Each structure stands twice: as C-alpha cells, then as structure tokens.
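Lab notebook, bench 4. The sequencing result for the construct came back, and we need a structural model before the next group meeting so we can plan mutations. Quick request posted to the team channel:

Model the 3D structure of this chain.
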Amino acid sequence: MILVDLGGTYHQDLRQDVFVKEEYYFLNVSGIGTFTVYDTFDCTFECLSNPSCLSLNLAASKEADGKFWCQLLSSHKFINPNEYKENESSHHFSLKVRSRPTSCVQYGQQSASNDGIYKIYDNGGNTFLAYCDLRSEPGIAWTLVMSWSRENRLMSAFHNSPFQINAPEHETYPSWDRYRLSLERMRSLQAHSTHWRATCSYPTHGIDFRDYLRGNFKDFNIVDFMGWGTCKRVEHINIRGYVGTNLTAPFWQDIHNTFILHTDSEAAHCEFNAASTGAVPSEDNFGFYSSFNTNFRCTQGPQSNTQWWFGAHV
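Done. Here's the predicted structure in token form:
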C-alpha cells in the first residue's frame, strides 16, 4: 500500500496553491451555480465552499455593475477535454486538490490514479486513512469499508454485527485480514457514494469479476437492510463463475439474530440461482461464513479475505 496525503486546510493566503489559473480558457459544461462576485477570491471561495465544485469559469472583465460572473463546475478539463477551449472573455480555475476530500471518489475526480491509502474527512470534519481503489473499474472510485480473512470470520465485527451496528475493528489503518470502519464513517462515505460492491481476495486477484458482487444504494441500501432471505436487486453477481446481471438475489442481515450481511448461493427462491453449480449446504457468500465453500475465493484458505467497498462514478 502507498500513502498519498493530499488533504489540507484552505486559507485565503494559500489560494494560489489550491487553484491553477489558465487565462482565456473556458470549460463548456453544465454548471452547478452561477454568481456575480467582486473579485477572484469571492469566486474561488464559493467553489471551496461547495463539495461538488472541481473547477470554475470566471469572467475576464467586469460587467457594467462592477462585478464578475462566476460559474462553478462539478467537472474539470480532464473529464471533459473536448469541451475545454480557448476564448476571449473568461479565465478557468481548476482545483489542484479538494481541500477536504470526503471519499476516494473526489480523489478520482482530481485525476489521482494510484491505488493506496489516502486521507479522508468524515462528516464531522475529522480525518481518517482509507484505502482507495482508483483503477480496477475505469470511471469508478471505491473506498474500502471492511475486510477480513477467513480465519477471522467468527470475530463479532465480521460475523454477527450488521452494517448498522457500530463495530469498528482496527480502523486506524486499513488492513486486509481485520478491518472495519465505524458506523459514523461508513455513513459519511455512504453519503458520497452511489454504489457498493463485495470482492474476494482483492490483494491476490484484483478485479476480474469472479466471486464479485455489485449493487447501488438506490435499489438496495445494504447499511440499513434487515431481512432473512429477502430477494434484493443487484447489478452484477458472480459466485464460483456462475454469473447474474440486473436480477434479484437472496440476502440475510439481522440485528436481532446477529447475521452480518451475506447471500447464500444454495438458496433458490430468487432470480439468481447457483444451487446446482457446486454449492455446499447453506453456503454463505460475502459474509457470515457459518458454512463456507473452498471453491469460493473469499473462503479458499485461512488467509483468503472478503472486502466491502462504497463508491461512485468519477
């Protein structure tokens, strides 16, 4: 893992270190807000105050009322290079780095490209270190929220503590064999994410979409879900090479009977049915692991591990 510390505290005297100014350029994309301002500082301050702002266009000269127009943008020239053009009426300012990144998504939006450990700010303004996967799925940035090895499967944080239980484990520094963020930090990341995924032995296999699960929070809010074998829609699921896309699969998570979120590939009552593809009796997948299959990458051996991630498109 590598440590990339791009976090910082904004101060008006350091504005030149936060923005790159390119005179007589304009990024022609939809804005998230247009203002009239007295000077450059007012415009850049508006951008830094808006979590979605990555760059801005600013008029090169004042209007008749003595003010400049200022347009905030949620994109930048690296995302929309074909829309970045010279002109005679404006200057373009792009953030070198978001001063308070709240997820790995913002690092991806700033064109960070190295996977590794980054500084993140939670909703309370406190920092923590998180592992960011910025490369495995082009266009999506993922933040690791939980990882544990098969040999640690019976620890409370990974066996009988649903997502909505606050059960942090070794959260001060990400590791693959024993790591879980606090509920507060999970919810902070969830607020800046549209999708979630589960992976098996990511450090060994990376992402080749075998033994892999992905969904979106709109269809399936995994943090607040409670149920027994409830059929929930997922975007993609692969268990032992058996694949399903845009269908329902059964999920368990219960705060009273203490199941962490998982599916069971032997269950056959939802659209995804892998019961006849080598499942063992009551086979647990992506969590719980009271019954596990050594042909499933998450549970092949004692050091095999399971990950849960939150993410979004950049």
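The helical segments are 15-18, 40-49, 104-109, 156-159, 183-190, 202-205.
Will bring this to the meeting.
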